[in-house]
């Protein structure tokens, strides 16, 4: 197997970055995508790489970047030389799926992060008190089946004065 040169890695990264939208629009036809990158690398640098080798090399670059992130945050035990070399470039996460209209309509905080604080931020000691538990339960509460049904099919209003059901539903008078 041929070793990758810096020039070949540069072409691989540049092509993947510049064609990110195309990559995510392909669905599952990634083989032709990686093959076109292999053809470009082979045409410009000589050795023969195939689609699989290009895909694997890029996956390994992302893995090395993630290893560097873990090392820098104290979670990893070893740093990656390759991850360090390309760290600044990969910290933009250019390979991820670009935002669509739905993503842009959400506030930034709701796109990738939960608004529920971690348990550790609710209390400073190791045990949670009742108010902490109530705060967590209140934030994580979901509607029951009955609540969802009633919100979609509200019951008719009951008129106490006439002791009869009214046709007024949610304030819509007839």
Automatic annotation (TrEMBL):
Compositional bias of kind Polar residues: 163-174
Residue stretches making up the Myb/SANT-like DNA-binding domain: 3-90
Transmembrane segments: none
Residue ranges of the region described as Disordered: 154-174
Entries under Pfam families matching the protein: Myb_DNA-bind_4
InterPro entries referenced in this protein's UniProt entry, alphabetically: Myb_DNA-bind_4
Name listed for the protein in its UniProt record: Myb/SANT-like DNA-binding domain-containing protein
UniProt organism field: Rhizophagus clarus
């Amino acid at each position: 197997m041929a070793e990758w040169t810096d020039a070949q890695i540069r072409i691989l990264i540049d092509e993947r970055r510049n064609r990110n939208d195309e990559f995510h629009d392909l669905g599952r036809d990634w083989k032709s995508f990686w093959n076109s990158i292999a053809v470009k690398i082979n045409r410009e640098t000589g050795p023969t790489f195939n689609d699989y080798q290009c895909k694997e090399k890029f996956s390994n670059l992302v893995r090395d970047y993630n290893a560097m992130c873990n090392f820098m945050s104290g979670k990893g035990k070893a740093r990656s030389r390759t991850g360090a070399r390309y760290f600044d470039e990969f910290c933009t996460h250019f390979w991820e799926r670009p935002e669509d209209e739905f993503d842009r309509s959400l506030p930034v905080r709701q796109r990738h992060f939960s608004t529920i604080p971690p348990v550790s931020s609710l209390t400073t000691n190791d045990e949670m008190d009742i108010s902490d538990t109530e705060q967590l339960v209140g934030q994580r509460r979901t509607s029951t089946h009955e609540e969802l049904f009633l919100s979609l099919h509200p019951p008719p209003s009951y008129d106490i004065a006439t002791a009869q059901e009214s046709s007024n539903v949610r304030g819509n008078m007839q």
